[in-house]
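Here is an idea for our session: we take a single protein and study its fold together. Start from the sequence, derive the backbone structure tokens from it, and show both lines together. Once you have written the record down, we can walk along the chain together:
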Amino acid sequence: MPATKHLVVLTGAGVSAESGIRTFRDTNGLWEEHRVEDVASPEGFARNPALVLDFYNQRRAQARTVAPNPAHLALAGFEEAPGWHVTIITQNVDDLHERAGSTNVIHLHGMLNKMRSVADETTVYDCPGDIHLGDLAPDGRQLRPHIVWFGELVPAIEEAAEVTSTADVLLVVGTSLQVYPAAGLLHYAPATCPVYVIDPHQPEVSGRGVRYVVEPASTGVPKVLKELA
């Protein structure tokens, strides 16, 4: 029986965008007409917690209206490919990878459908609906979205780096390799590990050979996975 190869997939906003989830980078620094600092930072939450909670309530509700696209489905399906083990490291906070069927997903920036106390980032609860000002965790403190905001530490980054260091193939989809943490994780991949970048804009990556697939995720991902299989 052939040895199992490890496919590590780093996904970003471009994958979710094809399902209809908007990203702030595509809207001149505004996220649904809000400044990112106002709705995605600890300072913004301290200034106006009701605004931030409502913002994520809307994002959560909108995420429930969209469906996984062919990129999500192809990655989930590849878990059945003989001789392959798949780990997805995503910067996205939606659950489209899981809804497509992927079972091994690391969320760097948290998840919309989870929540936690403002005083405890380690205990996480399911969040099926809205969070309102005055909704308290079991510890008696205000609940907040389980989202890593700008300026906060990324607890999963060490696990992601360790996983990337074991990659036999690294596939980068829907994220820029000029933006951290994606750019940083690339350095953990073994020197012999082939790197595929699926991006309709083909960013430049210095320091190692990269194979570009210059097309959207929904067509590029199935194409690369068919080649790997």
